[in-house]
Design brief:
Number of domains: 1
Strand content: 35-45%
CATH class: Mainly Beta
Shape: globular
Helix content: under 10%
CATH architecture: 7 Propeller
Length: 467
């Protein structure tokens, strides 16, 4: 492990500091008048308590940043999600629970009885009357979208709720999944209406347990890729090991491809492909030939698991580069018909404009490593726009020591949009919000200063409602 402190380390290892609604300082440019609504972001903001430190970045307590834009002005606030685990550990002054890469400090005799802490730290879903803080190992936490007060757990009849729901802009349906663990392990698919109310669900038995973090909505289909992992489920459930330490990369198993009909939630296609690992998909759609097109960021192996654990320490030595690929699938058989590389730069967190989700999108937005950096020790320092029709990548390099998080698309109401990212400046130890024209990333439209450092997090969303 490198002994030199990384420029980004303070934005991971220091505990986030809450602040109430505050006007943000305009550092450059002007807030666009057509940028109206609220940016929400989630991420782990406390990785230690007392003398104990979590064993993986995924296990930090979640905190929500909201930035409201209205009439050329911006206000921000930042609050921890007050989960039951967070409150119990705050009272005890130490860590009490296990997680993805953390064993509970209890003895082996009692550890198996304790559920992992719902960290509520992965993503957010902005519903009309509430904000959901998502963590895929359990139910979402409900927050007041205006104040970010935690109101309790979402009352929905599913045991786990993935951090990557797919909201079909045109039908209003919200698709998601969870995993049922027990005598028979099952993939649970479910559909909610635009208010977040559960409408229907289906189940599919899983012969192979894997890590399923995301999926893709592609026209009339839902597509899942199951990476080739051996998961010692009983050892994990009994507290003998963690998911991080217990999962083993077994390439001979191959990647399993499952295709479901979005209407019936029945399996319609299944196949096996060469081994790869993925966290995130960019988008999917059905082309004129009736084939499924899936854009996905693929890793050649599971080294990302170790790298993400290292990030929690503030130092990394593991290289885990991924690239954006396009796969063409036969929906009836699930077989891959063709593969194309869209972006050969190391990248992550692909997304599209919300109204193009599940359709042939004009562009994909993503995080990139800066050119000619040591990708083992640096985090993403650039963002990009891949033009699907032109087949070209437009990118913006934030410069040495600046680290943008996943870019979020915000529609401008006039057929275009803005691209928003929160940037940590390692040299000044400060966080900023940068706004770009989503059509071209040559220079930011404006930069806004946040009153506190926002720990580097995972996922976010933009709501057209000002809260």
């Amino acid at each position: 492990m490198s002994s030199k402190q990384a420029a980004w380390s303070n934005a991971v290892t220091q505990v986030g500091q809450e602040f109430d609604s505050t006007p943000l300082e305009l550092l450059s440019g002007q807030v666009p008048a057509t940028l109206q609504g609220t940016l929400y972001r989630n991420g782990p903001a406390r990785l230690q308590r007392g003398d104990r430190h979590v064993g993986h970045w995924f296990d930090g307590d979640g905190a929500i940043l909201s930035v409201g834009f209205s009439n050329g002005q911006a206000k921000g606030q930042y609050r921890f999600v007050q989960t039951a685990g967070y409150q119990a550990e705050a009272e005890a002054g130490t860590l009490l629970y296990g997680g993805y890469g953390t064993l509970a400090p209890d003895s082996l005799l009692t550890r198996w009885r304790k559920s992992p802490k719902n960290a509520a730290n992965t993503s957010v879903l902005a519903l009309p009357d509430r904000l959901l803080a998502l963590w895929e190992g359990g139910k979402p936490h409900v927050l007041n979208p205006k104040t970010l007060d935690t109101l309790g757990l979402e009352e929905i009849d599913v045991p786990t709720y993935s951090a990557h729901p797919k909201w079909d802009y045109h039908s209003g349906e919200i698709f998601n999944f969870g995993i049922d663990y027990g005598r028979q392990n099952r993939l649970r698919l479910f559909v909610c209406d635009s208010q977040g109310t559960l409408k229907r669900q289906g189940h599919h038995p899983l012969e192979q347990i894997s890590l399923i973090h995301d999926f893709v909505l592609a026209g009339d289909y839902l597509v899942f890729f199951l990476p080739p992992l051996e998961v010692p489920l009983l050892r994990i459930l009994f507290g003998l090991t963690t998911i991080k330490d217990g999962c083993r990369w077994v390439p001979r198993l191959g990647t399993q491809i499952l295709i479901f009909d979005r209407h019936s939630l029945n399996l319609v296609g299944r196949s096996e492909a060469e081994p790869w690992f993925q966290w995130h998909y960019g988008n999917g759609y059905v082309n004129e030939a009736g084939h499924i097109v899936v854009d996905v960021v693929r890793y050649p192996d599971f080294a990302t698991n170790q790298r993400l654990a290292e990030i929690a320490t503030g130092y990394t030595d593991t290289t885990a580069e991924a690239h954006l690929d396009r796969l063409i699938l036969d929906p009836q058989t699930g077989k891959i018909l063709a593969t194309e590389s869209l972006c050969d730069r190391s990248c992550e967190f692909p997304s599209v404009a919300p109204d193009q989700l599940g359709r042939n999108a004009s562009a994909l937005y993503l995080s990139l490593h800066r050119p000619n950096v040591d990708t083992a020790q640096d985090l993403y320092g650039a963002i990009g726009r891949y033009d699907v029709q032109q087949g070209t990548l437009d990118s913006f390099d934030f410069g040495e020591g600046r680290y943008p998080v996943e870019p979020i698309y915000a529609p401008n109401g006039e057929g275009g949009g803005w691209l928003l990212t929160v940037v940590y400046d390692g040299e000044g130890d400060r966080s900023e919000v940068w706004v770009f024209n989503a059509a071209h990333l040559d220079e930011p439209v404006c930069r806004l200063g946040l009153p506190k450092v926002i720990p580097i997090g995972f996922h976010g969303t933009f709501s057209n409602t000002l809260n």
